[in-house]
Amino acid sequence: MVNQVISDQPLSRFQRCDTGIHLGRKPRADIIIGLFLFLTSCYSFFWQDRDWNSASRLMLTYAIVDRGTIYLDGLEIHAGNPSRKIGDLAVYNGHYLTEKAPGQSLLGVPVYSIWKWVTGSEDHPVNLDKAKPYWVRDYWITIFTSGIMTAVLGGLIYSASVHIGIRHFDATLLALCYGLGTYASVYATLFYGHQSAACLLFGAYYLILFRKTSHAPSGLFAKGRYHLIAAGMLAGFSVVIEMTLAPIVLCYLAVIIWKDKSKNSCVVFSLAVATSVLILPVYHWKAFGDPFSMGYHHIINSQVRMVHQGVGLWGPDWSILPRLLWGAQRGLFIYAPISAIAVFGWLLCLLRLQWWAVIVPAFALVSLLLVNVSHFYWAGGLSTGPRLLLPALPLLFLPLAYVQADFEKNRRRSARTFRLVLVLFLFVGLTIAMNCAITGGRFGPVNHHVSGKVSEEIHPLKDEVYSRLVVGKLTENLVSAWFDVVPLTQWLAFFGYMILMLSAMGWYTWRCR
To answer: Which of 39, 94, 379, 447 is most buried, most CB within 10 Å of its CB?
Structure first.
């Protein structure tokens, strides 16, 4: 049984949840709203240009809304170079399609539909002679999908931490450590699927973990199981965005089986998951004539297509593991420094028998690490840090919350020390993440240096980020994009943004005390 945590309320007013956690404190709505608005405003400052990865997803959104089709014919130049047979494109029956899973593009459909209805803009033009690196609708679709999803994740991490038992100040600090102190903040400005999938996956576990029912309801669709329906729908759609998350969803099912010991709960959750996941085979059947045929099986590049035969995974290469954890190119501990102390949190949670803070986060990280070390393109192409591990990152904050809750109960001095450690990791991670975001956020393991030479084994922070900062090669921001200013003003806008962000973050966190 998990130890009870300190609460501002008397013990008799505690509500017991199915995972053995005693819920004392309640999340504050004003803090959740403030976190959401603050993080969203931070992400909305950046306007990243298109690359093949994001454009491939964006073109599917535009094709669905503008023309009512999933074919990218006429838009393919944005997602690759068809004449050279390269790019993030698939070809089937003479039609161009995205090679990506459709989930992120589907999330962009309502955003683009509303934006197009409000502004009355024309359809995205086809058969352009040159791809447009910046397009205003790209910005809004990205902010209202990746950006908002990451901001929601910050609120969920705060809420979960408060439920576990830590103070509002520390819970807000943990949310900021994730939202600004990890490379998740970079992907909040890119139309990739990782942050949306991470939000849905964590939201599903939040609903499973913090249940206020004292026993399993008797009916199949009883009121006490509504949260399982919502959790299943969220978890299932996360797989539609990132198919590698399927094992983690099965782990969620195992948690429900173990805690509820009810067949009805398993059936409800499974049906909800299947309802969402069904989108995937239906899309594949429509696009490629086979519900089990993925876009990766029809990639325009024949060499890459051979690599992705089957599920696209080879035998694990364990020599890659250190490079994924602490390597300079894609190290998790480099681009999300706070994750390095999650191991300490796991050990303490195991000693306290707090299984639910360890099992699921550990399984999520290990399963995605196994996929990553088994993938031929383990470095993930152009990216900041190990982007394939992003969906597991928010789950790593659960053991950190348990550690602080234990310290607040038993070791007040240790709680203050741990709080200072979180502040330190926040500013270290913030420095790394903001520098990566302002210079584009996408760096390859084999890339061209800004001076023109090719570097086979680059250190992104030193060889790419620093070099781009020195020569002033910065990404667009709201000031430079809307007012067409010179690079000096772009620098001034960024420094002004940093001052405002740090001031607001300090004031807001202090108010949460």
So the answer is: 39
